[in-house]
Design a protein that fits this description.
Elements lengths: L5 E5 L5 H10 L5 E5 L11 H16 L5 E4 L2 H6 L1 H6 L4 E3 H9 L7 E5 L1 H6 L1 H9 L5 E5 L3 H6 L8 H17 L3 E4 L8 H8 L4 E4 H16 L8 E5 L3 H12 L7 E3 L6
Parallel strand pairs: 1-2, 1-3, 2-9, 3-4, 5-6, 5-7, 7-8, 9-10
Helix pairs in contact: 1-11, 5-7, 5-11, 9-10
Length: 266
């Protein structure tokens, strides 16, 4: 038994979907969550800057004495995989687990939607082709999704979201893809509108949930489960803003306490 917490970080609130999944899988685990909301969005930043920020995020979470860390950020997972692998605390990312699950589906084109930085890095595309060399990969950057979701505009009846769905998912639908990776942890909040746009025949692979399941399996296999269900939330932005929006991502009441930490230099 290991009562140390699981560490999770993201540029914002999307990684809370991993917290929600872990609460179901391992409700006794303690969790430390860091949202770097003062520096979001990560998706439009240069790769070298993102790598520095990833190290800073890792260091902050590790300073809380965690037993493992989940980089619940598709942008970090795709632009700084070597930074994650080299870190002295065991790390997990949302890219590799999603790719492993995606290639287990039907043959045919595989779609990927993620931030601009994730798609431009080519990491999802390369990983998919390495796992299935003959795969046709249709990768689409979706820069409008995160700000819409963070604003609570997750209903397909929202005009701006409907326009974004049509613009971004049109190429996925036209390709005939049977599998779509939701490569940003925010996107699970609009999974239902995405599913209705593409049709039920398209299997959605939520990167956040895949990573949470993989982490949970590792803890069980290694005998590292343990805790009392305590959770600590930190943000580099306004604690009030994080708290107000968190219920949307957690699917339950907002956290009782959110601590503000000073913004880090990019």
């Amino acid at each position: 038994m290991d009562n140390r917490a699981i560490g999770i970080f993201d540029s914002g609130l999307g990684g809370l979907t991993a917290v929600r999944e872990l609460r179901t899988l391992l409700p006794e685990e303690n969790i430390v969550y860091f949202a770097d909301t003062a520096r979001m969005p990560y998706g439009a930043r240069p790769a070298e800057m993102l790598r520095r920020m990833a190290r800073q995020d890792l260091d902050f979470v590790a300073s809380k004495g965690v037993k493992c860390i989940l980089a619940a950020c598709g942008t970090v997972s795709s632009t700084a995989p070597d930074v994650l692998r080299a870190y002295p605390v065991r790390t997990f990312d949302v890219l590799s687990s999603a790719v492993r699950e995606a290639v287990q589906g039907e043959e045919g084109p595989i779609g990927v939607i993620a931030t601009a930085a994730s798609i431009s890095s080519g990491a999802f595309q390369s990983a998919l082709r390495a796992a299935r060399p003959d795969a046709e990969v249709v990768a689409v950057p979706c820069p409008a999704f995160v700000p819409l979701i963070e604003s609570g505009r997750c209903d397909e009846g929202d005009e701006a979201l409907a326009e974004a769905l049509a613009a971004y998912l049109g190429p996925i639908r036209d390709s005939g893809a049977k599998t779509l990776i939701l490569g940003c942890t925010h996107y699970g909040l609009i999974a239902d509108p995405i599913r209705r746009f593409l049709g039920d025949h398209v299997r959605l692979v939520e990167a956040s949930a895949c990573a949470a399941r993989e982490l949970a399996a590792y803890l069980r296999r290694s005998g590292l489960c343990g805790g009392s269900g305590e959770e600590q939330f930190y943000t580099s932005g306004r604690a009030e803003d994080f708290s107000a929006l968190s219920a949307l991502f957690l699917g339950c009441d907002r956290p009782e306490r959110v601590e503000h930490v000073e913004e880090m230099e990019a």
